Amino acid sequence: MAEWRDLLTPENLAALECFIAAQEGQESLPAAVNGILTDWLSGYGYLPVEELPEGDD
């Protein structure tokens, strides 16, 4: 099975690694991709938007 790093263009991989480095917690590459996809898919209506309780950001 192919590794995540084999499936991405060098530019996308570099951007993803910068994104991961900027996160407060040490996020794995699959977790980062999953989070980014969830945000994008919910932003375009393909996934339901999770509402945060008032006061949570």
What labels would you give this structure?
57 residues; CopG family transcriptional regulator
Explain the overall architecture.
The protein is mostly helical. It is 56% helix and 0% strand. 0% of the residues are buried.
SSE arrangement, N to C: HHH
DSSP summary: helix tally: 3
Q: Report the strand count.
A: 0
Mean pLDDT: 87
Q: Note poorly predicted spans.
A: none
Backbone structural class: mainly alpha
Helix content: 55-70%
The best one-word shape is: globular
State the separation between the terminal residues, measured CA to CA: 37 Å
The biggest beta sheet, please?
Answer: none
Strand content: under 5%
Radius of gyration, in Å, reads 14 Å
Protein name: CopG family transcriptional regulator
How would you concisely characterize the structure shown here?
This protein has 57 residues and is an all-alpha fold. It has helices at 4-7, 10-22, 29-43.
Task: Break the fold down into its secondary structure elements and pairings.
Elements: H1 4-7, H2 10-22, H3 29-43
